[in-house]
Amino acid sequence: LSVQPCALSLAKDKSAYIRVGGGENWNKVYRSVKIANEAQEQEGGEYTYHVVGGNAGSVSPFGWTFLGGLSGSSGGRKYGFGVDQVLQIEMVLP
After folding, report:
1. What does the pLDDT read at residue 36?
2. 6, 39, 69, 93: which has the highest count of C-beta atoms within 10 A?
3. DSSP codes joined into one string, 5-68
4. Could you tell me the pTM of the whole model?
5. What is each CA distance from 25 to 6, 17, 41, 45, 50, in whole angstroms?
């Protein structure tokens, strides 16, 4: 989790973003965000950062996002589709 926003995240009024590498899964993303939230130690135990993601930790964020990113969690209903949360995708082609 980066606390230094990029220009695109600022334009979309996002205070932070997550950079996810190829081959990573939601389990790694959720753990990273949890660690970042615990480091912030907000009063009342509320988390600063939230992730709109899939319910299965073994699923890749890229595969989930390319299929629209439907979330079964309350975060999905509150923040919208996962594909709406993507700021940038970088691909390496042969």
Report:
1. 83
2. 69
3. --HHHHHTT-S-B----TT--HHHHHHHHHHHHHHH--GGG--S------S-TTS-HHHHHHTT
4. 0.69
5. 23, 16, 25, 26, 16
Handedness of CA 10, 1, 80, 58 (dihedral sign): positive
Amino acid 29: pLDDT: 85
CA 40 to chain CA centroid, nearest Å? 17
Q: Compute CA 8 distance to the chain's CA centroid, rounded to the nearest angstrom.
A: 15
Place of tokens 């970042």: 36
CA of residue 28 relative to chain centroid, distance = 11
Residue type, 41: E
Residues of the chain with pLDDT under 50: 1-2
Give dist(CA 46, CA 16) in Å, integer.
Answer: 16
